[in-house]
Specification:
Layout (H helix, E strand, L loop, with lengths): L3 E9 L2 H8 L10 E3 L6 E11 L3 H11 L6 E11 L7 E6 L3 H13 L12 E7 L11 E2 L5 E4 L1 E8 L6 E9 L11
Antiparallel strand pairs: 1-3, 1-9, 2-6, 4-5, 4-7, 4-8, 5-6, 9-10
Length: 188
């Protein structure tokens, strides 16, 4: 029996966004590209890593306390493209416009869990596929998003990741509703 859990905090995707993102995939279905199952798609807020299972309730309580203090917001989809480095991409991602509320949420969750920020300005994205490690990534298109594709962020969730082949298995352990109920569009 495992005595640890591999955890992360993320936002689950609404069904309509998932349905739209699926429409971009045919352009990326090529040898050496491993499409991630839709049920694994999420917007990562903070990767926690392996922790003793005895610490899971404490992490859950911290998120439960924090979530009502965070505001709802909307993310605007910019493109689906190779990333994060266009010259040497590792994945295909759905990239969203910079958003101060997203950055604020990432900072708040990271600090509440006693960690440090990896990036000053985190990029909101959903990983849709990964390139095989043993090949040079083929040329892939950047596909602009359909106009006005918005992603309402109204909750965060604590997820557990079990490493399996060919893809990890993700389970949402708990969901936390963010504070205000009426998201305001953000113009950036």
């Amino acid at each position: 029996m495992k005595h640890y859990a591999r955890l992360f905090v993320a936002v689950p995707l609404p069904g309509l966004l998932t349905e739209e993102l699926v429409t971009y995939l045919p352009a990326y279905e090529k040898p050496g590209v491993r499409i991630i199952p839709e049920e694994n798609w999420h917007l990562t807020v903070h990767f926690i890593g392996n922790v003793p299972k005895t610490q899971v309730p404490e992490i859950a309580e911290k998120l439960n306390t924090l979530a009502p203090q965070l505001e709802n917001f909307e993310l605007k989809l910019l493109r689906v493209a190779p990333g994060p480095n266009a010259k040497m991409p590792r994945l295909i991602w759905a990239e969203f416009a910079a958003n101060q509320a997203f950055e604020k949420m990432v900072r708040a969750v990271t600090f509440a869990l006693g960690a440090k920020m990896d990036h000053q300005h985190p990029v909101a994205h959903v990983t849709l596929a990964r390139f095989a490690k043993d090949i040079r990534p083929p040329k892939m298109p950047q596909t602009p998003a359909k106009e006005n594709t918005l992603f309402p962020v109204q909750e965060i969730s604590l997820w557990e990741s079990e490493l399996r082949k060919p893809h990890p298995h993700y389970t949402i352990l708990e969901r936390y509703t963010l504070g205000n109920k009426n998201p305001e569009p953000e113009n950036n």
